[in-house]
Amino acid sequence: MKKLILTAPLLFIVLATALHANAQVGGDGSSYVGRPRYDAARYTGENAGVKINKAMAAAVLTGGVVYVPASIGNIATRVIVESGTRLEFGTGTFTFSVPSYTGATPTVASYGWQIEMKNNSQVVGQGMRETILRESTAGLTGGLRQYSVIGAYNHKPGGGDENFTGVSTGFYIADLQITEAIGSTWFNSAQSTLSLGNLHDSVIERVRLYKTHTLGITLGGIGSSLDRSKESNNVIVQNCEFDSVASQNLNVVNGDNIQFINNRFVRGGYPSGSASNWTFIDLETNTPEDQLNNIIVAGNIFDNRFPLRYDTSTTVSSVNTATDIFAAAGVSIINGTSVRLTSTGTLPAPLVSGTTYYAVSTDYGATTKVAASFANAVARIPVTIDLTTTGTGTVTLTANGANIVGHAISVSNASDAVQGNIVIANNAIYGGNSDSTYDGAITNNMPSGIFLSDVHDIVITGNIIQRTGQSAIQSYESSRLSITNNIFRHVAGGGNVAIIFNNTFYSLVSGNTQTDGNQGGTVQTGGIGAVETGASNYNRFINNIGMPLLVKTGAQTVDVGNTPWR
Fold first, then answer.
1. Can you point out the beta strands (E) in 415-486?
2. For a tag on the chain, would you pick the N or C end, based on fewer CB atoms within 10 A?
3. Which ranges of 210-291 would DSSP assign to H, the alpha helix?
4. pLDDT higher for 415 or 524?
5. Residue 365: what pLDDT?
6. pLDDT tens across 516-547, in order?
7. Which of 112, 57, 110 is nearest to 87 (CA)?
8. What's this model's pTM, rounded to 2 decimal places?
9. Element (H, E) at 81
């Protein structure tokens, strides 16, 4: 009997077909055609939330639709979408003022979201630009400001199981936009705009998140190795748009059979309250009880060519003349970001006040050297300024028009949870702007296209990765990767190469093409290729075009048929 060997493209097709076959999900817009409709504006109540809930009490008896017109006013009471019903917002903008909780601390009775969905329910609008829901304006002094707008009723204390382990099923969320409340400036990395928890058999499509102040869409609650239903399972997120989301845009912390397909991500990060690093898609377990299995990320566009820009300043805590390094935590910059320095006394020599310099970041801006030109900062071996004095007074470093640093796709499993069978296929990743006239820099908008840490059984195939500030793909402490038939254009800036394997084992890199080095059209031949570092071994680098293996640490690593860039 012959053994079936799944190549990367075949594995992708098989896995996608299997997931599609299992996709008995939460219906679509047509499933409520002809159902009874209840206009929430016709009900009485002290605010729009009360009116909606009264209409919902009638709709649940008939499996009907609650329609909410924009004229209904502010929603100040939490809305509960009952099982078997649909909440439909009309064209226009809707405001909320529901807090995360009431009282000094959250309780079972008071905690929740703006809109809470019970099993087999729907929340829809009229389109991604026609129906706009704003984040809540409510928040206690010193308490938790509410940025979650839609959440699972079971994914909270008191909604189902305790401690965010409850399971939900049959959601359909579509055709609406969620954006910031007017005047909102804060940021919270513990909430999610759509907080869906351990959600099963559901679809989220044509949803736009724009200038939001927390994580975007998060799947997975607290898991259990004894009860694998406590995970997100069989969920599709497709044809959505993420623009200027403050933190991780689309996330799985505990899930199986998940598809992220044909979504568009632009302008990573949003400077709200404090700058937060971001990731467009983040697959990351939190505890050993979680899992990441059978996940497809395919056909998405990640476009960070024109990120939001802002000036940000920080006090330099120390200057080391031996290493020429400024300790300057608090700014998110990478190689090539333009900076200026000022002092209440004198600047470290030979720096001149009012002069623009260019950062050479050694830790995403926490420690930084400076170069006299953009070209020197992004060279294969950066040329930095030799500092001869530490200066006097308080030295301030300001990043001019810095962007918030992040990756297109990050997969990590530091908690050693169950993980495997993840396919990243046919995506387009644009890490930076192609025209240096935009901001004087070309590749400093996204450090890496794909970042892997402590993972295994990952297929990366058919992707285009273009203009990353550092490497196209970075892998740490990982194994059994298949990286095939990808195209790398203008990657490997800041002294890096296209692919970095650090303590990575039993992996295949084959059939990839690297067209040239990057930085303003100037070919950086030292940035062409791949390297092994640490204890990496048992890898196969075969038939890559323009991408030689520059450093091989593993005695059993195979290096065959790789051609140099020409």
1. 418-425, 428-430, 450-453, 456-461, 464-466, 473-476, 479-484
2. N
3. none
4. 415
5. 52
6. 654 444 444 446 789 999 999 999 999 999 89
7. 57
8. 0.81
9. strand 79-81
